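Course assignment 3, question 2. Fill in each field.
Student: A.L.
Task: Predict the tertiary structure for the chain below.
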Amino acid sequence: MCFIGLEGIKLSAKKIVYVSILVSQALVLNIVESFIPVPIPVPGIKIGLANIVTLVTILMFGFKESLIVVILRTLLAQLLVGNLTSFLYSVSGGILSACIMFFVYKRYSKYFSLVGVSVFGSVAHNVGQLFVAALIINNFLIFSYLPVLMIAGIIMGVFTGLVANYFKKYIKNVKYDSKW
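Answer field:
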């Protein structure tokens, strides 16, 4: 059985179930993370637990599915605990992060481990959020905050990459239908 998804993409029922499970896992991690105090008391710094699921989605399926997971997770999280401005920050950072992680993973995986891919994604997430913030407040001096966010992004990216790397061996054991 096939369904027509976003932009005419044909999705099997099995794939829809897998992607839905990944969206719900990312949503749960996003909500749980909002209750975890970050050891560094700097605004905008988060662990990025939902990025673990984005990495896993890239490993399991690819680019389109990872974007679907990021967009749906962000939309649902903001409906539950956020507002419009935080949605714009989250979705822009999430999309840029997924794009960069997929590009680095597909193009440079022989040079960068999954931890390195995660670090690139984490830094890209911060850049995407700062860009939207600069547009909203109409002041690009906010990028002076980037070095602090980059250091935090590297640390958090290493953590999320290590966790995603742990799951990588289990992902290889999942058998996929070639018609996906």
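Instructor remarks: The first helix runs from residue 13 to 33. The CA atoms of residues 71 and 80 lie 14 Å apart.
Grade: pending
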